[in-house]
């Protein structure tokens, strides 16, 4: 649950430090929830491994949006946990009854970030600061994330 990746830590076009590019199909096969990927954005253009969770890229270069599907959020309390991640200009909203953190980049050195938590899983969307945060929110709405019961 890293908050606010700095662009200085990343190579251009990569979603995380020490990223390794892999085939999209390989990354989807290793993902816990490949069926959550946003079909409205088409097929991912790139895939990367960043530790255990694969990242999927939609678009190219500075306009790319990166998506990862993570397990291990059991016990996360968004009513207090998002407070630790919330920075200037950020907000907490709901998506299908699930908590969603919307955090615009605070400067060109940081990434835009949207996190949606469902049960013990999270969908994280990242982009460079030059991409509209509204684009990330729109992509989050395209995910097939189940609603809260």
Task: Set out the fold topology.
Elements (H helix, E strand, L loop, with lengths): L19 E3 L1 H7 L15 E5 L2 E6 L6 E6 L7 H8 L5 E5 L2 E6 L8 E7 L2 E7 L5 H10 L7
Provide tags for this entry:
single chain, 149 residues, alpha+beta, Protein Transport Mog1p, Chain A, 17% helix, globular, disordered N terminus, DUF3558 domain-containing protein
Could you characterize what this model shows?
With 149 residues, this protein is α+β, with helices and mostly antiparallel strands. It has a single domain (7-142), classed as 3-Layer(aba) Sandwich (Protein Transport Mog1p, Chain A). It contains three helices and eight strands. Strands 1-2-3-4-8-7-6-5 form an eight-stranded antiparallel sheet, sandwiched between helices. The longest helix is centred in the C-terminal third of the chain and has 10 residues, at 133-142. The radius of gyration is 14 Å and the shape is globular. This is DUF3558 domain-containing protein.
């Amino acid at each position: 649950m890293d908050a606010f990746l700095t662009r200085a830590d990343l190579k251009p076009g990569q979603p995380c430090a020490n990223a390794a590019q892999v085939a999209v199909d390989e990354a989807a096969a290793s993902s816990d929830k490949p069926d959550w990927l946003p079909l409205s954005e088409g097929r991912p253009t790139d895939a990367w491994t960043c530790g255990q969770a694969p990242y999927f890229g939609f678009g190219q270069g500075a306009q790319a949006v990166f998506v990862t599907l993570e397990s291990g959020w059991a016990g996360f309390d968004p009513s207090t946990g998002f407070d630790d991640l919330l920075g200037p200009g950020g907000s907490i909203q709901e998506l299908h009854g699930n908590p969603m953190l919307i955090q615009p980049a605070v400067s060109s050195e940081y990434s835009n970030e949207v996190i949606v938590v469902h049960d013990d899983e999270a969908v994280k969307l990242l982009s460079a600061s030059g991409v509209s945060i509204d684009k990330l929110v729109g992509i989050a709405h395209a995910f097939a994330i189940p609603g809260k019961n």
